[in-house]
Amino acid sequence: MHLFYQPDIPAGTLHLDDEESRHVVKVMRLKSGDSIQLTDGKGSFYTANITEANHKKCAFEIISKEEVKPHSTFRHLAIAPTKNLDRTEWFVEKAVELGVDRISFLLGDHSERKVLKLDRIVKKAIGAMKQSGQAFMPQLDELTSIKNFIKQVQTDYKFIAYVDFENEALLKDKLVGSASNLVMIGPEGDFSEREVEMALAAGFVKVSLGANRLRTETAGMAAVHLMNLV
Amino acid sequence: MHLFYQPDIPAGTLHLDDEESRHVVKVMRLKSGDSIQLTDGKGSFYTANITEANHKKCAFEIISKEEVKPHSTFRHLAIAPTKNLDRTEWFVEKAVELGVDRISFLLGDHSERKVLKLDRIVKKAIGAMKQSGQAFMPQLDELTSIKNFIKQVQTDYKFIAYVDFENEALLKDKLVGSASNLVMIGPEGDFSEREVEMALAAGFVKVSLGANRLRTETAGMAAVHLMNLV
Questions:
Q1: Does residue A137 sit in helix, strand or coil?
Q2: Helix, strand, coil abundance in chain A, percent, nearest 5
């Protein structure tokens, strides 16, 4: 089943944008009167009938609506984008498939990537949401410094993936169900000492993801998977 | 720390192959007398000194050896390779990073990919083993039909990722620690009815990986991660 995305349905928008319209009309060759499935990315699925099969602005009328309950655990992942952007895009795809509510992108003292264009990342996330048949589009935050992020973020439980060999705590044993959890993953060059100190002072708890040395994007994906298991 | 791979150290081979030798001599510019770290992929790390910095056949002498205990759970994942080979290569990289003992590649009734060259996959696995600092190289099996695989495989616990809405069991609740576990993931077109029946007759248990519809490679990666958590 193909799923289309129109975030503005709750605000009254009853047509698809350019790209989705082209897909409906040119690729799937659907006509006026044909039925489509939609999501607003805000927790609702819709069954709709096409009223005008325009390949730039495909209009529809809503026949029925189904609301989906949000996941009981709020899953927030903060990660420094990788030097190789493919790896970050891959992470976003997998995180959305597994289920994630918010992804924040971080700029650290040891970050190799200092700019991030969010538009490609947003497209990946939309594609993964539709492909995996979900009704929630995660919030994606613009790149921000680790310092500012630590100061401003609000959440019930905050974890920093930073291995402390003397006091090792596994993330899987520390996550708390039915609450908001945030896991912060550092850049390929790891967090700086200053950043770790700031995080601890702000109430973050140091956690390990296991015995193996994981790449940034693998650590992020494992953390998202764990947040889906609590 | 850079890790080099020579699987034949236990059989007495005391030099690196072509590619690894070139890396040591041409890229890292190491000389006779310099120290390197090695693994045989069979559970041992070695510290060695270079005795001849030859860029085609770099010879070394072993100074010390450290044996690593195998993971208490044997993690066996069987998966049908994806149409897009990048996705399968990506899966192998992530599975090895997270930790996997054996990967079997399956050809199913609904497989779109009917051939698989193992050499690129093996390279990905070696790269991931070295990058994540591990001493075990997983066994990688040539493509085989699901029918033959089901008949021949030996393991303590066998699971097939196939959602049965009337009788849903989560893989995370079914895996057994300190035993050999096998999870079988179907092709993008899913298992055929015949394949599911054969698997059940052979003692496989139907399991779900969660609420979301996951891509083949994401399902494989999630299953490997779960086997590492028990």
A1: coil
A2: 35, 30, 40
Whose tokens are 């609450």? That residue is A179
- Under an 8 A CB cutoff, do A98 and B212 touch? yes
B110-157 tens-digit pLDDT? 999 999 999 999 999 999 999 999 999 999 999 999 999 999 999 999
Domains of chain A: 3-67 (2.40.240.20), 74-229 (3.40.1280.10)
Residues whose CB falls within 8 Å of the CB of residue A81, separated by 6 or more in sequence, listed in order: A88, A105, A106, A111, A113, A116, A143
Under 8 Å CB pairs connecting chains A and B tally to 56
Residues 146-185 in A contacting B (C-alpha not used; CB under 8 Å): 172
- The ipTM (two decimal places) reads 0.93
Sign of CA dihedral B148, B207, A175, A143: positive
- Out of A97, A212, A229, name the one closest to residue B214 (CB): A97
Mutation for testing the A interface, residue in B3, B82, B90, B94 having most A CBs under 10 Å: B94
Would you call B214 and A133 a contact, using CB atoms and an 8 Å cutoff?
no
Q: Mind listing the pLDDT tens digit for each residue in B63-72?
A: 999 999 999 9
Q: Does B225 touch chain A (CB under 8 A)?
A: yes
> How far is Cα B36 from Cα B63, in angstroms, rounded to an integer?
10
